[in-house]
Amino acid sequence: MAERSTIIQQAPLRLIVSQWKDFPDGTGEAFAELESHLATLKGRKFYGLVYETGSGMTYYAGLVPDSETEEQLFASLGFTIREVAGGSCARRKLLNWRTKTDQIGTIIESMIREHGIDPTRPQMEFYRSLDELHLLLPIPS
Q1: Which CATH superfamily is domain 6-138 in?
Q2: Long-range own/partner contacts, residues 35-43 (CB < 8 A, 24 or more apart)
């Protein structure tokens, strides 16, 4: 895990999403729901989106569609499309993330203390690989 955050400019995202209501438990099922409709995961980009609400947190597993046709196919299966505004984010890389999921909340909290948070955008997880996770915190510009 990186000790320090780096500041990046996150591009806007358009994602096929699966909402999961029991955050933080069961997020894997939300991804499995998306993955079950793909021939391969190779080269695909996945994100986790966390929206804070008055009643807690809402989690979405997200997939960057590879084409408009794929987006339409997923929409026909009942998935929704969610657009995420781009902007400044603090990023921390978490290696070996599958063995450290219990640390994610603490890392995000420390990032919020260090950088503040833009509450109009979701906190994000970018699954760079099976070993590398990028935690992305939207910060005020």
Answers
A1: Regulatory factor, effector binding domain (3.20.80.10)
A2: 37/73, 37/74, 37/77, 38/63
